[in-house]
Amino acid sequence: MEKIPNCEKCGSEFTYENGTLYICPECGHEWVKDPNSQESQQQQVVRDAHGNVLNEGDSVVIVKDLKVKGASSALKVGMKVKNIHLVEEVDGHNIEAKIKGFGSIMLKSEFVKKSN
């Protein structure tokens, strides 16, 4: 029987298999079994603050006041951001969006929730 690896993110030994993914129940991290497969490059799972899966072009709402470097004001709770773009994670920022008054900005998915 194949040994399931510990979580890549938190090191938990309680990971489990689900289709082509390994999943950690402790931190929620998901990764592809075979990192060289074509699926792994296409399968980027981004979740919001409540665990909902975010998709390209979704609208989100900011759930925490966020200070913006170089800006005189902050992004306020409840601000709606339309047409998000999912990108490769850079310092935890995995969403790119254009916000009126701020321009193009990078956001962390943990500070937004999916909007209807």
UniProtKB/TrEMBL annotation:
The Protein YjdM N-terminal domain, residue ranges: 4-31
Q: Which SUPFAM superfamilies match?
A: Prokaryotic SH3-related domain, Zinc beta-ribbon
Q: Name one Pfam family in it.
A: YjdM
Outline the extent of the Protein YjdM C-terminal domain.
46-114
PANTHER family per the record? PROTEIN YJDM, PROTEIN YJDM-RELATED
- Spell out the family assignment given in the record's similarity comment: Belongs to the YjdM family.
| Protein name (database record) | Protein phnA
